[in-house]
Predict the structure.
Amino acid sequence: MGLLWGGEGVGSMYALVRLTLSSDEILEISDADFRDLKNSREILTNALHIEANFCAVCESYKLIEINYFKTSLDAMIYNWPTNEDFYRTKYEYNALMIAALATVRLYTISIENHAAKIIGKELATKKIKEIKEKKLKTVFEYRAMEAIRNLSQHSGFPVHNFSIGSEWIGDKNLASTEYFFCADEVSGGRKFEKEIIDEIKERGGRINLRDCFRVYFNALCELHTEVRDLISESVQRAEGSRKEMGRRWQSQFDDKSLVGVVACKMESNLLDKSIMPVYLEAFGDKNREHLKMKMSSFAHMDKRAIKL
């Protein structure tokens, strides 16, 4: 037991209360109301995790694109590379690529677990598998990058060779950086899928990692859009339940703020700490909406470029 609210003891009940020392606000709710709000909170929390994990994928992709720009800009301005600069550039890019691939792996594995807590395990398993088959496994660049990720975890870096330089096009000297993964470097018994090696050889024997990762990222964006659509009805229903409970509270008290308001079980005006309170409004609610809005335009990501 814990915090005490003023007034005559009311026995056992579920209620909305504000967890502040100066508040004696209390509104009785039903057991069904509490269970519905608890379920809604779990759905909204898992929806937030899906958005946050994909935001991490986007940030990893952004760091890779920044690396291209920074390395090309250095090549444009400075008289380089020295041997040290050359290898440092390669190692920096390897580190960024490995981190990005690991972040993608976290996302693609975790979405099924989070979706299961939103729409149920059986449906989530079935639908997520279908979406992955449609949006990821039919894309060569996805299969190639996943094979490269697996290789990087066991026996080697993604970058086998790269070029930094510039060329005259018209009256402009354009600097660029390119990194390559080569099929011949992994054909001799290392842990790499033979089918992927054959596909790479059919495409000239090497992969331009910049172009490949952009298509890979586009496929992941399409996956995320479909996952978001899959869970949207349940998330909207959960958000509606949370907001309805908030309106019930606000209709009873002068202070309309929902800060610190929780659904909980009370025993004789004491908070029963054996049952975890459920917050009516959490920071994650606004953060989820912010991330959803921020990542709402994912069409043709592999075709987008910056004009300088």
About this structure: DSSP finds seven helices and eight strands in the chain. The first strand starts at residue 12 and ends at 18. Confidence is low (pLDDT under 50) at residues 1-7. Strands lie at 12-18, 26-29, 161-169, 172-182, 206-208, 261-267, 270-271, 278-279.
